[in-house]
Amino acid sequence: MAPDASHQPDHFTRWQFVVLLLLCLLTLFFFSRFSAFHGLGPQRLHNPDFHKGLNGWQLQRGSGSIGTLGPQLTISSKRGDSNLGISQCFSADALPQQLWLEVEMRVDRVIPGRLDWHHARIDLIGYDAQGRGIYDGHGFAGSSGSHDWRQLEGLFQLPQQAERVCLEIYLYHSRGSFEVRNLSLREAEANWFYPPLRGVLLLAWVVIGVWLLHSLLSYQREEGLGWWICGLLLVSLLGILMPQEIKLWLELQIEGVARLFGLALQASSSRHLNHISLLPAQWSIAKLGHLLSFFLISSTLFARGRFAPLNLFAVLFLLAVASELLQMFVPGRSSNLADVSVDMIGVLLGWALVSSLRRFSFR
């Protein structure tokens, strides 16, 4: 007996979901397991394991405490009204052009401050001859809330204008406890296998993306999905693939226009990377863009009533995760757990709006 054609689109959609899910898991495994660089040569830090206490480190004491226990540093503050931490600086002439930093960090009930970089932070910062910080792309890791030990690693490119470079471990205007161990700062050497594997993975995303786009356009012709949804998805894709420099420039333009109308919108700060938090510390223009795009997409799809709500929630969640993982391939961009949360808040708001309007219309 020939298969029922009416069931083929649903079966095909399930296959698309499974393939996209597997690709997301593979991408997550690749970027969490492999690095483009690794540390080479001697340790650049003095007393990185804190066996000599805080010898070799410069302290900035605020309202809180800084201490060591074996190879572990602990910074804690109950008030969060000042910067509290340690730093170690080097002459730029004595450093290679690329540095590889590795560290493990743990936070306990860190409550962020007013700005989006007010939390527990580890930074490598270049300073020019006048002592001004060169903050472009300097961030390494920032975290708030609570989480157990996490190993982080990253590349630092020595700025051309830098006279010195400082590793800074701070609680910036935040309350809570911040712990660090297993610090390592060495010259960075590229892993030869990383570019080809990354290229194969990127090719897989392109092939599957074309497949999904073809299916979406076919579904639009057959079911009348609407060019509105296609346009929203295209705009979202452009936002995902936008390089960091263009993204920041665009946000600054939006911030300036909003200021003319008395709106206090703020561009995303470029001063953090690897921010580990379930929710954003600050609702910047980029976060509002995430919220709005998924709100519009979800409300439109829920309003059509052709999709089971749970299935639609699952698909939109997978799209939110995929959009973050795709940013790992874009220069200057990185994935952020908080952005997935913001996307799903937009989905929930879209569902709530449609559900409320339907209940109101039936009265």
TrEMBL record:
The keyword Thylakoid does not apply. Residues 229-355 form the VanZ-like domain. It comes from the Bacteria. The keyword Protein biosynthesis does not apply. Gene3D superfamilies: Galactose-binding domain-like (2.60.120.260). The chain crosses the membrane at residues 12-31, 200-219, 225-241, 310-330, 336-354. Keywords: Membrane, Transmembrane, Transmembrane helix. This is VanZ-like domain-containing protein. It comes from endosymbiont of Riftia pachyptila. The lineage of its organism: Bacteria, Pseudomonadati, Pseudomonadota, Gammaproteobacteria, sulfur-oxidizing symbionts.
